[in-house]
Write a structure and sequence with these properties.
Blueprint: H1 5-13, E1 18-22, E2 27-31, E3 34-40, E4 45-51, H2 52-61, E5 66-72, E6 75-81, H3 87-101, H4 104-109
Antiparallel strand pairs: 1-2, 2-3, 3-4, 4-6, 5-6
Length: 113
């Protein structure tokens, strides 16, 4: 188990209209100006936008893999430790984070593969 950083970045690159912004310690990901994720290479973690209920469920289920990052605008962000998750589950969470930020018409044009 565990997802290499390159695989996570490929998942993000496969999504439509993703914009990347690099800062000193992390890269952020947005779709049409709305942020949906972060990547911290030093810690091999990602932050992903989720619903509040999904944030609570993930952290309660596996606190060794997920932790609360913050809540904002009715959404709960989770930190995901790449070493503790498999590729299929991460792909679903990445798509969900993107879907929560993308306009409805873009989501309709790009359903989860």
């Amino acid at each position: 188990m565990g997802v290499p950083s390159a695989e996570f970045l490929r998942m993000v690159d496969d999504l439509a209209e993703v914009e990347q912004a690099k800062a000193r310690d992390y890269t952020s990901f947005s779709v049409r100006g709305k942020r949906f994720g972060y990547y911290w290479p030093r810690t091999q973690t990602v932050g992903l936008k989720q619903t509040l209920s999904e944030q609570a469920a993930l952290v309660a289920e596996r606190p060794d893999v997920f932790e609360v990052q913050f809540t904002a605008g009715g959404f709960g962000w989770v930190v995901v430790y790449l070493r503790g998750i498999d590729g299929d589950e991460l792909a679903e969470l990445v798509y969900e984070a993107w879907r929560l930020s993308a306009p409805e018409e873009l989501v309709a044009e790009h359903p989860m593969p």
